[in-house]
Amino acid sequence: MQFFETPENRLPDGAELQRIKTHDGYVLRGLVAPKRPDVALRGTVVVLNGRGEFLERYFETLRDLQARGFHVATLDWRGQGGSERMLRDRMRGYVRSYRNYDEDLRALMEGVVLKNCPGPYYVLAHSTGGHVMLRNVLHKGWFSKAIATAPLLGLNYGNWPPAFANVISNILMALGLGSTYVPGYKNGPFLLEKFEGNILTSEERRWARDLRTLYEHPELGLGGPTQAWLNATIRSLRQLHGSSFRNGLMCPVMIVLAGREKVVDNKAAHRFMAQVPGVAHVTLHSALHEILMERDAVRAEFFAVLDSYFVQEPQTGSTKINP
Q1: Which of 23, 63, 119, 213 has the fewest CB atoms within 10 Å distance of its CB?
Q2: pLDDT by residue (tens digit) across 135-181?
Q3: Is the pTM of this model over 0.90?
């Protein structure tokens, strides 16, 4: 296990590699890094990425957080990035149950963050990472506050009726075809595509940065989702939306939606927010799905939200931070 820098994507200062072992025997690649030394300490932000991602894509965001006085911690979920894969074919996006991801998050928090990083603890979670985070803040009191960007709260089935997709998924799982690809997805890394027409970001420079990392280190990539991943996601969404939120979540949550979203279902996110106490939201109207990989103007909007939500000036003895 190692990190992979490029000239335009440098490792966060002081970053240390973490080999995180889960209770069920998987080894995950993690990273911890201290705040920048010239700013006041504000705690630790745990960054949770989305399906098919790798933590190198978040080097820039981790440095932005360090500049705000935060220690940072992150990981690659099992089955992707530099973490141990679940199938012999490394390209297949596979998971048996979202309880597997719950265990990955527990291992990061209890094995690394709570032992080695200063509080208070915050979490910044994207897409599938946002879904996993929301599953856990139902009953885990790890975090003081949470932000979810473009969280996976509903699948975008395209022209498929959701009920039909659910039935087909169950049939294929019953037939033992969980490791087969969802129709329309390919075997190669999903980011190895042309920038033109992509539905993830409107920022070509950051797209090219991540593309270079994948070209040089294709072992970080992941192909399309399998039927097992789809089935696990459907079951977890049903569980999350069907949960009792009478007492709210264990910490306040800010959901940041992409106004030009084409990957996840924003309507499902609004339904979730309507039923859960303690959840606020903001929509960045010009953003595509990957808000943290977007144009500078969109990222500036996002960090204005984060600064107002996470960053609080100490009561005494501090100077104002200019990130």
Answers
A1: 23
A2: 999 999 999 999 999 999 998 776 666 777 778 878 888 888 778 88
A3: yes
Contact between residue 80 and residue 229 where contact means Cβ atoms under 8 Å apart: no
Give the DSSP letter string of 234-288: HHHHHHHHTS--TT--SS-EEEEEETT--SB-HHHHHHHHHHSTTEEEEEETT--
CA gap 323, 319 in Å, rounded? 12
Please state, in angstroms and rounded to a whole number, the distance separating the CA atoms of residues 39 and 260: 35
Q: Tokens for 282?
A: 């903001």
Q: How far is CA 37 from CA 12, 42, 67, 70, 238, in A?
A: 13, 12, 9, 10, 44
Closest Cα partner for 118 from 58, 76, 74, 72? 72
- For residue 139, count CB atoms less than 10 angstroms from its CB and return exposed for 0-12, middle for 13-18, buried for 19 or more: exposed
CB proximity list for 297: less than 8 A, separation 6 or greater: 286
pLDDT band at 318 (very low <50, low <70, confident <90, very high): very low
Question: Quick one: pLDDT at residue 131?
Answer: 98
E strand intervals along the chain: 16-21, 27-33, 43-48, 70-75, 121-126, 145-149, 253-258, 279-284
Under 8 Å between Cβ of 129 and 105: no
What pLDDT shows up at residue 319? 30
Output the six-digit token pair for 168. 């087909």
Q: Is the peptide bond before 189 cis (omega within 30 degrees of 0)?
A: no
Name the average pLDDT for the chain. Answer: 90
Burial of 88 (0-12, 13-18, 19+ CB in 10 A): exposed
pLDDT the model gives residue 312: 62
Neighbouring-strand partners of residue 125: 48, 148
Q: pLDDT tens, 32-72?
A: 999 999 999 999 999 999 999 999 999 999 999 999 999 99
